[in-house]
Specification:
The protein is of the alpha/beta class and 209 residues long. The chain has helices spanning 11-19, 36-45, 62-71, 87-96, 109-144, 146-163, 175-182, 190-200; strands at 2-7, 28-33, 50-54, 77-82, 100-103.
Length: 209
Amino acid sequence: MKVLLIVDDEAYARQAVANTIPWAEHGVEVHQVSSGKEALDFMEKRTVDVLMTDIRMPSMTGLELLEKVYQNGWSPAAIVLSSFNEFELVRSAMQLGAEDYLFKPTMMPTDILKSVQRVLEKKKKQRKRQFRLFLKRNIGKVSSGRKGFQGEIRNCRGAVAGTGDNGVCNCQCPIDEISGLSGESVWGRPESYAVFYWKRAGRGYGNGV
């Protein structure tokens, strides 16, 4: 399941997002925190696919949170929550890398769900494009290193089999998404070896994209 982290110092605002949509039916696991610091602590431990944060919060604003998230090399799809007269802040958030924004006074459950689905789809397409380009540029290195990667692939394959979570790998490699490129298994093909070359190049999936 994809992980959605809601960051807002107002409990009712967090609960409005978390409790008005049957997220599990849409393959989303929801977590809530009340501050930027709690969000960073959470992301140290868990991969977050979608970060939904209020712009105005005490101690650490949503903009400051996004800056720290990107400085740490994490790249969740970010959605900012704004209220009245915050256009400049929203624009700054989009310039930092936020994918979408929602207007808190008028947002409806359908708006929230569509926004999350939209940014997830955008991120998925982006990752596939990145990996295709990486594979195209490095296929020679990948092929020459296949023998050395075999043990790692066996370990990774075991992790996939052991998750019970639609084959998502525990080590956060993109093998599940690569399979989706062609709709069939890629074990033994150059793409599967490229996963590990990709990781060694510091381009791992999950928070490291």
